Request: fold
Amino acid sequence: MSTRILNLPFLSNFRSSETSAAPSKPVTELPQNPLDRFESAPNRLWRRMFTPVGRSQSQQILPQNDLASLYTRLGNLNRESGVEVKTLGSVDDLPIHLIEMRGTSSAAKKNVLICAGVHGNEPSGVSAVFELISELRTKPHLGENFNFYILPCVNPHGFKAGERRNPKDVDLNRAFAIDGGQPEAEIAVVKPFMEKMSFDLVLDLHSALPKRNGYFVLHRSDLDLLKPAMQNFAQDWPVLSNGSKPYKEEAPGICTSKPKGTLKDYLAESGCPHVVTLEAPRAMEFNQRVRGLSRLAGSIIDQFALLNGVKETS
Ligand SMILES: [Zn+2]
Reply:
């Protein structure tokens, strides 16, 4: 794929800030590039908020709705081999990031997209991204055969404020309709990336109202994938039973929903064969909720690998 819009000056600036205390150039001295108008401000913000942390700290669960910790974690990830953190663009000074982990084998690889933070008051998805990356990196057969693209925080202002909606009071997960007119700023940032890619599996991480008594997924027609994945997951984690309304429960923890401009429905209608929304029970203690959500995503990816003949190498 072309990385023309992804390889931004921001990244090299950010990398240099990890190893050098050299002061950043004033914005006026930055090269004049059409992307600079939104790159300069996030650069300044990142520089101010980024502080490298030790290994033990980076292994802790990312605290909820903590933008500075999110940036720190992204900065640390960007230093690891096989991982690249880029920005797709920004919304009023806050960047929207893309984490790329490209498959290492020369064979044709499946593209997996993981999204989180579409709803700012559901931070367990954002934190679960980092737990999931740690898990994926212990499974070389996945790293060899899949390209992972991760949008860790689609609604950064909502995340910062702990609000479900964006600053214009729009629920982004109802605003992804393909013919929806002028898109919301966050959607305008992520859609060009989504449109030029072809994803084989998409997981969108959310958390549900406290009244839900377990984890569940929303899908269109993926029972073959989700039934065994949910059965494996249910051995260690609670799965929603009775109480799925307004969703239609097809199997324990597996529901369908009516399309309402969700990211899931937008990508499914764009041709992605497997698009799943994952919901964690918000009543569960945060760190536990994050671990479970990460494991549920991992369980679906494990099953997707099996269905595609990708097995653990001994
Ligand atoms: Zn949500």
Summary: The chain has one domain: 9-13+35-307. The longest helix spans residues 286-307. Residues 132 and 295 are 7 Å apart (CA to CA). Confidence is low (pLDDT under 50) at residues 1-58.
